[in-house]
Structures are given as C-alpha cells and as structure tokens.
C-alpha cells in the first residue's frame, strides 16, 4: 500500500468514529489532501472515499455535512468517470427523496459537482449531464413539491450556464419542460425558470431559439391583454441579455408591443419590467434599436416615467418643463434653504410601504443611462430632450432612485467629455469644431446654474449617501468643464463646510469633499478661488489632523493647491498670505516629523511642506532651520527618498522664495551622488534633475563637492537609457557653465563614454541636442586641455570611426546614423569657436576631399557631413572648390558617399541661398542621371524653410519638382512628394489647390505622388494649413476608390497619418470613408499571381501591402476615433484578418486585445468567431524541414495570439464562455504553451505597471 493510500485509509477510519470531532477533523484533513495537485488515488481508494463522503452527507452533525459537501468539489477532478457517475446518481436520488435535510445538502452537493466538473473533459461532462438531465426534468415537473422544483431549476440553470453547448440533444426536451413553468403560481419558480431559459437561449440552435422566442412573444401578447405579461417580459429581457444580437429579429415587434402596453397600463410592475427590458435591448442591441427608430420613443417614455409618482404631489419636480429664468436663479443661499426646511422635513417623514412607483422611476433612470452609454452619437438629442428632466429629478425623495438619477447624469457627463476635448482640440488646431459637439457642450454649460442650485442642497442633507453622490457629480462637472462653478462658489461654501465639519459625516464623505475642493482650486482661476481660502482653511487643517490616513492625505493635497492659490507667479498675492502660512505650517510640520504614519501621508506631507516653502517660505523664514533638515533625513530614508528628491527640486527651483539650502547642501550632494548608482530609474532621473537645478540656483557650489557627482556620471552616458543620458549631459552642461573648474579632470573621465555614445544609432533628437549643448558650453568654458582643436581631434581620432560599409556588419562598433551625430558634434565645436575657426575647419575638410581616391570612404563621408553641418550656420561660399568637390562626390561608387554629398550640398545651400539654390536648380535641369541625389539636397533646403526664406524661389522649385512627379522610380517620387508636401505646408493657399487639380490627372504616377504629398502636410502640431486641409482632405482620400492599386495604397497611408496626427480632419468623413477602407481589407484573387522559380511555382499577393495598410489604419482609428466606429462591422473585418497573412494576423491580434479592453460587451458576443482562428494559430506546427526564420515567425505569432487570448480572458463574464475556457485549459495543459502564456501575461502586467507616471509635482 502506498503512503497516500495508507494515509487516506487512516482518515476514512476516523470518519467512522462515534466522536463528531474526530469525524470533523478527518474530513478536514481529507479536504486538505484533495486540494493538493500531487495527490493520486488508486481505484480502491477512490471507491472508499466516494462511499464515505456520500455517507457523511447523512451525518447528524451539520458541520461534518458541510465539509463533506466541500470535499466533493476537488474530489470530482481527482477520481475517474465511474466514481463521478456514482456521486451524481446518489446526489440526484437524495435530492428527489423525502428527507428534507438530506435533500437540501444533496442539492448543494450537486451544484458543487457541476461547478467543479473540468471543462477539458467533454466526455465526462456529457455522461454526467445525461444522467442529471432526466431526473431534473422529472423534478421540475413535480408541482406538488416546490422545494424540489426550485432546487432542480437552480441546478439546471448552472448546468446550462457551464455546459449549454454540450446539451444540444436535450435542448428540445428542456425547452418543453421549462416553458410551462412560466405559468406557475409561484413567483420563485417563474424567476428561476426565466434564468434557466436565458442560459438555454445562449447555447441553443436557431430552430429552438425561434420556437422559444416565438412562444414568449405570443404569450406576452396574450398576457398584456389579460394582465399576466410580466414574467414573459422578464424572460424576453433575459433571453436578449444572454443571446445578444440573435434577438434583433424580434426587436421591432416586441418593443412596439411593450411601448403600447406601457402607455395604456396603470400597473407599476408592468411599467418597471418594460423599462428593464428596454434597458437590456438598448444595451445589447444599440445599433438595431437606433436603426428601427425606437430610441427616441424609449427616451420619451423614460422622461415621462422618471417622474411617475402618483402618491406624492411635488409641484416643482413633477412633469417636464424647460429651465426658465426663475429656475435658473443663481442667488440661492441659506435663506432659500431655510424657506424649504419644512417641505424637506415633510419629504423625509413621508413613507408608504405599499407604494412601488419608485421602482418604475429607478428603472426609467437606468434605461436613460443605458441609452447614454451605448449611443454616444445621440448626445445632443439627449441634452435637448432628457438632461433637463434628470436635473429636475435630483429632488427625488427616494434615496435609491435619486442615486440612479445622479448616476445617469454622471454618465452623460462622461459621454460629454470627448466633445469637450474635441472642442479644446479645435481651439488648439484652429480647425472648426463639430457642430454637434459644440452644441452639446453649450447645452451643458447652460444647465450648470440649475444643476448647482439643486445639487448644493444635497450637500446639507442628513443622508450620507446623498452627500456622496452630489459631491461625485460636482467633481465630474468640474472635470468636464473646468472653471464652470466660478459664479456659484460663494453659495456652495456652506455645504462644503458642512460635509467637512459635520460630526455625522463619514470618512468617505470627507474624502470625496476634499477631492472636490482640490478639483475646484486646481481648475478655477486663482482670482476666483482666493476669496474663499480663509473660509476653507480651518476645515482643511482639521482634516489634515484626522486619524484616518485617507482623509489626512486628501487634506494635505488640498492644502498644496491652496498654497499655490495664495501665492503664485503671475497672480496677485492673497492679502493675508503671512497669516495663512503660519496657520498651515505647524499642522504640516507635525505630519512631516511623524515616522509612525501611513506611507501615503508621509509622502504627501513631504510634498506639502516643500510646496509651502516654495510659495510661502518667506513668511516662515525663522522656521527654515527646523524644517529643512528634516528633508535631509527623509532623503536618507529608502522609502521616502524619491519623494524627498522631488520635494527638494520643487524648493530649489522656486521663483517666489530664495530658500537657503546651503546648510544641508554639502551632505545632500554626497547622498544624491550615491543615488546615481542605484538601480532605480525614477530615482536617478529625479536626482539628475535636482542636481541640475541646484547647480543653476547655487552656482557657487564648491568644485570639490561636485567631484563625487561627476565620478558617477560616465556610467549614465549610455545608449541603454537615453533619457537618463540626456539628463546627465544637461547636468554636465550646467557644471561647464557655472563651475567649469570642476570639469577640468572630469572631462577626461566622461569623454570616452561620450565617444561611445556618439556611435549609437539611437543618438538623435533630444539626447543629441543635449550633447551638442554640452560641447558648446565646454568650448566656451575654455578649459585647459579641452580647446576646440583638442575636442575636434578627440572626435576625429581613427578609433572613433570605421568605414560606413562595415556599419551593417559591425553595428556594435559604429552605425551609419553615428556619422551624422559625429558631424553635428564637429559642427557645434567649430561654430562655437567663432566664424573664422568654422571656416578654417570646413576648408580643411574641403582640402581633404581634393586629395582624391587616396581617402577612405569614412573620411569622405565625415568630411562631407561636417561641411554640410558647418554650412548650415556659416556662409561657405568663399571656399574655392567647395561646390565642385561636393558634386564630384555625386559620381562616387559608394552609396554612402553619394548620400552624404547630397546632404552636404543641401545643407551648405541653407547658409547662402542666393549662391547655392539657383546652382542646385540648374544642376537638376542639366543632370538627369543625378536627379535622386539633387532632390535629396533640395529636400534639405525645403525642410529648413522655417529658418530661411525661400519664397522668391518657390515657383522655380515647384516647377522642378513637378517635372519629376511622374518618375517611374518610387524612391524619386517619394522624395518629390515630401518636398511638395513641405512646400504646401508653408504656403497652403497657393499650392494646395494645385495638388487638388493634379488629382484629376490621367497619370497613375502623378496621382500617387500628389496623395503622398498630402500625407506630409499632416503633422501633429497646429499649422495654418489645417482649416484649408479639412475642407479639401475628403477629395484626396476619395482616392481610396482609385482604380490604381498604388494610388489606393498611398491614400490608405495618408488616411492613417490623418487619423494618427489630426483625427479632427477625418472624423466627419468616416461614414463615407469606412466602407472604402473595409473593402481594402478583403483578399482579392485577381491580385494573386503565380511566379515560376525554376521548377517551382510561387504565389505572389500584390494586394498584401494594400491590406496591411488598411488594417494599420483600422488600428489607428481604434485609438483616435472609437466613438465614430460601428464596432460590429469593425469586428467582422478584424475576424477576416485573423485568417490572413502573417503580417496582418499580427495586426489583428493587437486589435483583438485592444478591443477587449475598449469594447468588452461587443467582443464577448463574438467570442465564438474569434477563438477558432486564434486556436488554429496557437496549435499550428512548423514543418520539420523549415528554416530558423520560420520557427521564429511562428513563435512570434503564437505570442501575439496568446496576448489576445489573455486580453479576452480578462473580459468580465468571459469565464462563462465554454469555448474560451476550454481553449485556456488546453493552453495550460501544454507545457510549451503554458510557459509562453505565463511569459506573455507577465510582460503584459509589467507593461501596465510601467505606464504609471513617475513624476509628481
């Protein structure tokens, strides 16, 4: 006998003991054993354990019975099929028996077994279901025993929920058994039947579904006439909720029937059920409800019934009326509240237990919210017809209904936020806003006075929940329309103080109030908030001393903003700033000194004290010696050091107070230097930023003090973290400017790291700019041993460069991009030394070029690029053979030299346009074989037109470009298109109409060039061209339907660029453009051709690039124009892409993951179609004789597919989808796939954590 069997046998023996405690402990130990993954039972042990647990279900002790039931769950996954059948048979028999206690415990056991049945074993599940189904249907039909009937319906609901698709053969029988129960006299039976039918609807076939819904609709129609329709209405809603789009075919008939019945009937229950059903229809089939024209009538019904209160007469709140001038009175204060005290007391005292009309009002509010959330395109209509009534119903007397009304209006505010953002974007870009968005925002703005008048009364309500929802609503209002509460702040202060100071206020109310105060002070102009500072201050100080950490932290955050309101740059100082500073200081100091408080409070106290010192420090100068040393202590603490670094930076960079930090500076710099060695990126960046600020603010820091900092900088000058390298270079620049002596030795230490950094292909943009600033400061600092000549020799040393031809094979040593970085460094050193020195350096490079073929390619490339960079800043026209030497390089056999020569010619021309630009245009006319290089040179000039004026040559340039717009070579056309686009960007009124005219050309090549040119006019920053471009971009994007495949491809690229950089340009055009876009996602057989490669035939898909561009555009639209997409159509084309080429599969997997996050409710309805192609990818095997690249591609595909599966699994209720769960179980049962899946999930989680912002204020 094995050890496990022996141990189990001992436990089973103890379970037969007469002592209940022995039985309990033995059963508990068995539970622990069964939960272990490693346990394996032999056949004999299985039989004994099953027999014993089933026997214990009849135990006299309730606790032992409960434990035995719990053991059944893990046991089902451990024993073989015959034993599971034994368990199920016994439980079913007991459940339908006469002993009530055994019947109840067996029902629970059966539910446990069904819940724990493994999804991966369909055969076992089928056998079990077959055994259970027959007995359940018999039990359901037993009218005389309701308890058994209810338990059977519950179990059947669970069974259909988990194994609905497996039970296909029993669906007809189940349907016949369940439908009659809808007429049961027992409400509990009817409710459970509705649930079971809902689960059945989710998995049954089309015939059974049609039969079910047909009977429901027919019976509902009869029931409406006889007054017994409520159960059938609920059932239709449940079926729609579970079956989603399948119910769309019956929507029109059902909705018309319900609307008519609701308007005629006086029965509150029917109205409630109708509204709940309409809410489900709107949520699950929003587009169909709109297409059928029902949404407007649904909203009208909701507006009518949200005030349905027949037993209560409220002259103000009942009935729909527009906001009139009297109702918009904004002077409501305490007097008005006092006048209504008696009425409010009567409202509180009113109670009628038999009044169920509140359920109707609540259902109406929820239905309105469903329309708001599911149909954002109806925003303006909702403001015009519904929002006013919601505001009026804020006076609702029933607390639950009032909360739902507030929730509906908060949903409306959330849906309005994109409209406000679009309006702000239009102001930023200069593009005209969408009329609907502007009208919706204007409607909200006009309703603010009445909203505030009603809501501010809720702040003084005794009911805590009312206060909370009112505060949340006001915070949302401020979040959507910053500054909108300015006229009402005086009247609101009393309510805010009540929420903060009232003894009955809970910590949640205080926290919400403090959040609201923070929102007000940070979103309203300082001059509006300043008059209320002294009113709020005592309450905020009291909350800052509260014992609950959340309240304290929120109060300190509010005090931070209050301090900025009292005194800030470019704002009038508060008259009592000194008194306010002296009141705040002791409270914050107490929190700052404390060490036994919550981490959040510690960090907030540090930041609050830093803000106080930075803004009001002048008024508490005698206390500097007390509080500033505490920051040094916090700097040495590992938990608070990051916050302390940022706080010190805030203090040191203050423009309002000249804080004396010299007392802690010496020790602090040593500590800060040690932080540069820490493996915490956020800490290193914050430390570098602080040191830079200290250097600029306290430029008299001793050079000896800086040596410990400088010694830590070389390791930071690495391509591994370019942002960190950029910060380090900025610090070195400040040292070179303010304390150059400290760099005398340090420059030698850092220069090797800088030479390596210059070689990096990533060294461009802001990091390269920081390096150039450092070199400029170093030259001007005139440090001995680091003159401009010495620096030039360092960068031009042979070990700094290698041949560009080796760049690809030896990327670790040098990269092509590094030659451009090196040239910029040489240029900045030369130009910083003065024009004469720059000319001398450029002349030396020209002389070097004239040496001819003896030069290495490396030397020629660096010479040309350096000449070009120097020529951008200094006029080199006086150098004798400059032009000839550059043009001679155009004929070099080396592509790198030719590219560098083109760059040099264009760059040199920028320094003296009258001399070089006409010469360039002349060369273009005379040298047809060098057009590509000359166009690149011209592109450099056009790209620099913000710094140089080329207006007198634009016509000549335009003509020269158009002469090459139909070049057969795509590379040449792309350069021409970029030049045309940049010219148009600078002079849109002149050139955009010309591009538009060229669209009518018969030449496919010209149309391709023109559409590509438009792409270069779309940049992410506001430009003068934007309004004109919005008017005309539709004409260019209509090229999506062009007969030429290349024109369509570049039109898709332009569409993608617009959607990414300026979505406002194309938002209103999407209804017209999306069908054309979706057409391009389809595989076209006419674009697939066969190419013979020796004895083999190879298929080439000319439409692949087109489809790839279309899917890329779809992915971009998900981020920028989600509110304008019809997700159902979008998903259909994503599903097609899941079966396409490798590149398109990768894109669609990303889209599936994104859609799972953005539109979970729509995605979960299409899971069946999404899972199959994902499963095919994950289970696909690579052929045995495949090359390494094929294995790598397949691995990447699997990873991308598993990311999509992980995203789908995280959707709420996805665990109820049997196919998805089976797929996930299959993944987890495969060792290879399990490892990949866990790797993907950990990558996703780490990516999400890295998205958290690291900088605080």
From TrEMBL:
Residue ranges the record marks as coiled coil: none
Biased composition, class Acidic residues, residue ranges: 326-355
Domain Stalled ribosome sensor GCN1-like HEAT repeats region: 155-298
Entry keywords, A to Z: Repeat, Ubl conjugation pathway
Similarity comment: Belongs to the CAND family.
Domain TATA-binding protein interacting (TIP20): 1065-1227
PROSITE patterns the UniProt entry points to: HEAT_REPEAT (PS50077)
Sequence ranges of the HEAT repeats: 49-86, 536-574
Name of this chain's protein: Cullin-associated NEDD8-dissociated protein 1
Xref: Gene3D superfamilies: Leucine-rich Repeat Variant
Region (Disordered): 314-355
Organism the protein comes from: Orchesella dallaii
């Amino acid at each position: 006998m094995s050890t496990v069997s022996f141990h189990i046998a001992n436990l089973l023996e103890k379970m037969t003991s007469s002592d209940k405690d022995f039985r309990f402990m033995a059963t508990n130990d068995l539970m622990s054993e069964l939960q272990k993954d490693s346990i394996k039972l032999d056949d004999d042990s299985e039989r004994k354990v099953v027999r014993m647990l089933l026997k214990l279900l009849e135990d006299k002790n309730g606790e032992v019975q409960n434990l035995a039931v719990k053991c059944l769950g893990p046991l089902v996954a451990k024993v073989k099929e015959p034993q599971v059948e034994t368990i199920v048979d016994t439980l079913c028999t007991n459940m339908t028996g006469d002993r009530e206690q055994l019947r109840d415990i067996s029902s629970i056991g059966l539910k446990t077994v069904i819940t724990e049945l493994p999804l991966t074993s369909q055969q076992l599940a089928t056998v079990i279901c077959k055994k259970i189904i027959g007995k359940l249907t018999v039990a359901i039909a037993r009218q005389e025993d309701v308890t058994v009937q209810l338990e059977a319906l519950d179990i059947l609901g669970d069974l259909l929920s988990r194994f609905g698709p497996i039970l296909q053969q029993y669906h007809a029988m189940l349907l016949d058994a369940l439908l009659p129960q809808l007429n049961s006299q027992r409400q509990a039976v009817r409710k459970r039947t509705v649930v079971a039918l809902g689960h059945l609807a989710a998995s049954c076939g089309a015939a059974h579904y049609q039969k079910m819904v047909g009977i429901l609709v027919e019976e509902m129609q009869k029931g409406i006439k006889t007054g017994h329709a409520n159960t059938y209405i609920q059932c239709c809603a449940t079926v729609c909720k579970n079956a989603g789009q399948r119910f769309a075919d019956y929507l029109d008939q059902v909705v018309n029937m319900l609307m008519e019945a609701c308007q005629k009937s006086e029965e509150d229950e029917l109205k409630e059920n109708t509204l709940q059903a309409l809410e489900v229809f709107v949520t699950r089939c929003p587009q169909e409800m709109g297409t059928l024209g029902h949404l407007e009538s649904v909203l009208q019904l909701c507006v009518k019934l949200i005030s349905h209160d027949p037993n209560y007469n409220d002259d103000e709140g009942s009935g729909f009326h527009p906001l009139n001038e009297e109702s918009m009175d904004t002077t409501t204060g305490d007097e008005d509240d006092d006048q209504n005290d008696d009425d409010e007391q009567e409202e509180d005292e009113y109670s009628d237990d038999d009044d169920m009309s509140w359920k109707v009002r609540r259902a109406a509010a929820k239905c309105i919210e469903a329309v708001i959330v599911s149909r954002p395109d109806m925003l303006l209509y909702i403001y015009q017809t519904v929002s006013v009534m919601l505001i009026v119903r804020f006076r609702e007397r029933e607390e639950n209904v009032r909360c739902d009304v507030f929730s509906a209006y908060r949903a409306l505010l959330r849906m309005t936020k994109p409209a406000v953002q679009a309006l702000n974007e239009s102001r930023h870009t200069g593009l005209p806003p969408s009329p609907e968005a502007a009208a919706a925002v204007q409607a909200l703005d006009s309703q603010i006075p009445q909203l505030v008048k009603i809501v501010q009364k809720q702040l003084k309500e005794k009911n805590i929940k009312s206060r909370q929802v009112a505060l949340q609503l006001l915070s949302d209002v401020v979040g959507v329309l910053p500054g909108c509460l300015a006229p009402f702040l005086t009247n609101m202060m009393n309510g805010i103080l009540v929420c903060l100071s009232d003894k009955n206020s809970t910590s949640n109310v205080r926290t919400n109030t403090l959040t609201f105060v923070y929102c007000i002070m940070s979103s309203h102009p300082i001059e509006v908030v300043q008059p209320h500072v002294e009113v709020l201050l005592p309450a905020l100080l009291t909350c800052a001393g509260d014992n609950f950490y959340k309240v304290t932290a929120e109060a300190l955050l509010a005090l931070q903003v209050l301090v900025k309101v009292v005194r800030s740059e470019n704002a009038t100082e508060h008259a009592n700033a000194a008194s306010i500073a002296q009141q705040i200081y002791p409270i914050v100091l107490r929190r700052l000194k404390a060490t036994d408080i919550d981490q959040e409070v510690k960090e907030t106290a540090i930041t609050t004290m830093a803000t106080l010192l930075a803004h009001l420090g002048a008024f508490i100068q005698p206390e500097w010696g007390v509080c500033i040393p505490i920051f040094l202590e916090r700097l040495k603490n590992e938990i608070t050091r990051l916050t302390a670094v940022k706080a010190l930076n805030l203090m040191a960079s203050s423009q309002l107070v000249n804080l004396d930090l010299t007392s802690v500076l010496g020790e602090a710099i040593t500590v800060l230097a040690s932080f540069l060695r820490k493996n915490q990126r956020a800490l290193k960046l914050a430390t570098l930023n602080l040191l830079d600020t200290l250097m600029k603010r306290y430029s008299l820091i001793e050079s000896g003090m800086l040596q410990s900092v400088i010694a830590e900088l070389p390791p930071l000058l690495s391509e591994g973290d370019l942002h960190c390298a950029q910060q380090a270079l900025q610090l070195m620049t400040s040292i070179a400017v303010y304390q150059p002596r400290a760099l005398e030795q340090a420059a030698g230490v850092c220069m090797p790291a800088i030479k390596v950094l210059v070689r990096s292909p990533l060294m461009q943009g802001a990091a390269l700019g920081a390096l150039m600033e450092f070199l400029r400061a170093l030259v001007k600092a005139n440090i001995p041993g680091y003159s401009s000549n010495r620096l030039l020799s360092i960068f031009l040393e042979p070990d700094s460069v290698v041949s560009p031809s080796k760049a690809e094979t030896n990327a670790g040593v040098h990269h092509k991009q590094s030659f451009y970085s090196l040239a910029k460094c040489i240029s900045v050193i030369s130009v910083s030394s003065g024009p004469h020195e720059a000319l001398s350096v450029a002349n030396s490079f020209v002389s070097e070029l004239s040496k001819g073929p003896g030069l290495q390619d490396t030397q020629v490339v660096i010479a040309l690029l350096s000449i070009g960079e120097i020529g951008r800043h200094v006029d080199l026209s006086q150098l004798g053979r400059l032009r000839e030497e550059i043009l001679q390089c155009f004929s070099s056999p080396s592509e790198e030299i030719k590219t560098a020569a083109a760059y040099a010619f264009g760059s040199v021309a920028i320094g003296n346009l009258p001399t070089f630009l006409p010469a360039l245009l002349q060369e273009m006319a005379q040298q047809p074989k060098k057009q590509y290089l000359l166009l690149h040179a011209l592109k450099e000039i056009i790209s620099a037109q913000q710094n140089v004026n080329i207006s007198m040559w634009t016509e000549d340039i335009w003509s020269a470009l158009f002469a090459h717009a139909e070049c057969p070579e795509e590379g040449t056309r792309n350069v021409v298109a970029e030049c045309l686009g940049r010219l148009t960007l600078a002079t849109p009124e002149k050139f955009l109409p010309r591009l538009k005219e060229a669209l009518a050309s018969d030449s496919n090549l010209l149309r391709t060039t023109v559409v590509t040119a438009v792409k270069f006019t779309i940049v992410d920053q506001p430009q003068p061209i934007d309004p004109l471009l919005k008017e005309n971009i539709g004409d260019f994007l209509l090229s999506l339907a062009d007969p030429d495949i290349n024109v369509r491809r570049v039109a898709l690229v332009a569409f993608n660029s617009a959607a990414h950089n300026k979505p406002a340009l194309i938002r209103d055009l999407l209804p017209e453009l999306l069908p054309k876009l979706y057409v391009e996602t389809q595989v076209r057989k006419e674009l697939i051709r066969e190419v013979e490669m020796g004895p083999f035939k190879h298929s080439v898909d000319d439409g692949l690039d087109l489809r790839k561009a279309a899917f890329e555009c779809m992915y971009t639209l998900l981020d920028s124009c989600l509110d304008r997409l019809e997700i159902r159509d979008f998903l259909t084309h994503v599903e097609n892409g899941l079966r396409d080429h490798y590149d398109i599969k990768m894109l669609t997997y990303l889209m599936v993951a994104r859609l799972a996050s953005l539109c979970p409710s729509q995605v979960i309805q299409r899971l069946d179609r999404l899972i199959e192609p994902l499963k095919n990818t994950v289970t696909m095997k690579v052929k045995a004789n495949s090359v390494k690249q094929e294995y790598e591609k397949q691995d990447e595909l699997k990873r991308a597919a598993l990311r999509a599966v992980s995203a789908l699994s995280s959707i709420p209720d996805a665990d109820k989808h049997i196919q998805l769960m089976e797929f996930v179980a299959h993944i987890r049962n495969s060792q290879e796939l399990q490892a990949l899946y866990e790797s993907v999930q950990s990558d996703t989680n780490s990516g999400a954590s890295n998205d958290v912002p690291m900088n605080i204020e």
